[in-house]
Specification:
Layout: H1 2-33, H2 53-59, H3 64-95, H4 101-112, H5 120-130, H6 137-143, H7 147-159, H8 162-170, H9 175-186, H10 188-203, H11 207-212, H12 221-224, E1 229-230, E2 233-234, H13 236-268
Antiparallel strand pairs: 1-2
Helix pairs in contact: 1-13, 2-13, 3-6, 3-7, 3-10, 8-9, 10-13
Length: about 270
Amino acid sequence: MPAIKKKQRFFTLCMWILALLMIYPFIMMVVLSFRPQGLVYKGLLYPIKPIASNFLTVLTNEYFGSWYLNTIVTVVLTIVLRLIVTLPASYALSRLRFPGQRVLILFFLATYMVPAETTMVPRYLYFKNIGLLDSLWSIVLPEMTEILYLVLLMEFFRAIPKDFSEAGYIDGASHRQILTKIFIPLAGPSLATVILFSFINIWNNFLDPYLFITTTSRQLITPALKYFQERGGANIPVQMAGANLAIIPVIILFTFTQKYFVAGVSSSGIKG
């Protein structure tokens, strides 16, 4: 027993250390957002009277509301279109049998192995040629077919007993009815995982909108923080204040979907 308790204590200590290391940048972000520009590089425990002017600078920016609204529209539109495309595709690839199915799945997985950074230049030229450059659609369309979420839902659908779908066939239900009335209601935790991951990834997306959106008023919230600059360079406290305001929706969403997220990750077979 003593040996087991020692291992448990050691494991608990390691978890606390890792937790502190992970939360430290977030704490620094909050602390720096209440500091004046000249004291930004002082230590975390340096005695400073907190100021709220950095948040006021962000909130009074003429484009801040547009950035927030653009991001919300992009996230919601992308998630809706992603589910419309991914749900039928994952059902077909996991429960139906057709020629070339395995090759198609391998092709999809192969595209996931290609780093997105290697396609930046081709995508830029492509969007420019078809007139989507400097548009929210340049962010939405590539995100519709993210392979990660296709695989996640495929694994969940494969875990559903075949008796459910066979009962639907016996009752004369079509594949669309089986998907909408049986599989989707059972996929609540996995759908919550897809929505949460999608929300976080799109909301925090920096590189794509930074490259493909050039008009200031059309920018998304994360890359738009770069506009808070002064003659001497970036205004770090103001940018940290903007980052605090930008992360609020992510924290709220995760707070209300945490239990579904954990259940979805467990049921889909994803390993952390």
